[in-house]
Description:
Layout: E1 6-11, E2 14-19, H1 30-45, E3 51-56, E4 60-62, H2 67-70, H3 75-94, E5 99-103, E6 106-108, H4 110-117, E7 120-124, E8 128-130, H5 144-152, H6 154-163, E9 167-168, H7 169-174, E10 180-182, H8 187-199, H9 203-216, H10 221-235, H11 239-249
Parallel strand pairs: 2-3, 3-5, 4-6, 5-7, 6-8, 7-10
Antiparallel strand pairs: 1-2, 8-9
Helix pairs in contact: 1-3, 3-4, 4-5, 5-6, 9-10
The site of octanoyl-coenzyme A has 25 residues, from helix 2, helix 3 and strand 6.
Amino acid sequence: MAYEVIIFETEGPLAVVTVNRPKALNALSPQVMDELTDAFDKISTDENIRAAVITGAGRAFVAGADISAMQTYTPLQARGFAKKGHKLGEKIENCPKPVIAAVNGFCLGGGCELAMCCDFIYASEGAKFGQPEINLGIVPGFGGTQRLPRLVGKGWAKLLCMTGEMIGAQEAAAIGLVTRVFPEGEVLEAAKKTALLMCGKGMVSLRAAKQLVEQGFDLPLQRALDLEAEVFCTCFTSPDQREGMSAFLEKRKADFKGG
Length: 259
Ligand code: CO8
């Protein structure tokens, strides 16, 4: 697929995906959603890509779903659009590689929902987060009412979804929505640095760690612990386990081959 509204770049093992509609503050049109879905299919299956960063061009990460596209939706079209979002969210969460959101500027509505699908969110100091759908007479439709309480608890999720208030990066970090805050202009480089750090880890254990947190989170604790024990023991079938432990004992840097 040729991309028109996103930019897809690779830097060694890293994919950098930029939502690129700066004049509309990177609003998520159906075309943006389709191109992002295609990009994450590629990221999941291309063996040369080991991690991804998603960001926005200009003064926003993403200021929400495209309101001009949604204005005339019938209920059925709205459902279809929400399902497109859910499908993309699942692709990012189930992507076998780490995905970091590097948030600059506005991160609202569908933008905040997109960021929450990533493994964690890095934000610049001036970033603004919110779920302003209530001001448009709708509710979040791309996972916001469900992923937000899982990240920040019910009280904050309700406050954000029921008032439409925007909060800054520091407050978003204090409630657990954002993982780290960086000075203006530094967030993308910081996200790339962390992504590259993860590229040097064993791919089997990296994938397993993501999968365990993702899948275990919604399970009862005992079932989640059983799952962890299963995955923990399969790590011991991988060459990366032998390499990682030998390297530690031989006091050298591990050279993981991804097996
Ligand atoms: N959709 C379409 N266009 C937008 C959007 C948007 N979400 N946000 C900004 N724009 C456009 C503006 O219309 C404007 O265009 P133009 O220059 O042609 O008039 C341009 O971007 C710049 O915006 P502003 O002039 O408004 O810039 P300000 O700095 O004054 O304000 C704000 C910035 C505060 C971010 C403001 O633009 C704003 O409030 N935007 C809307 C935020 C919003 O309500 N987001 C939620 C949308 S609903 C949603 O996300 C539902 C998710 C469901 C997803 C389903 C699956 C994908």
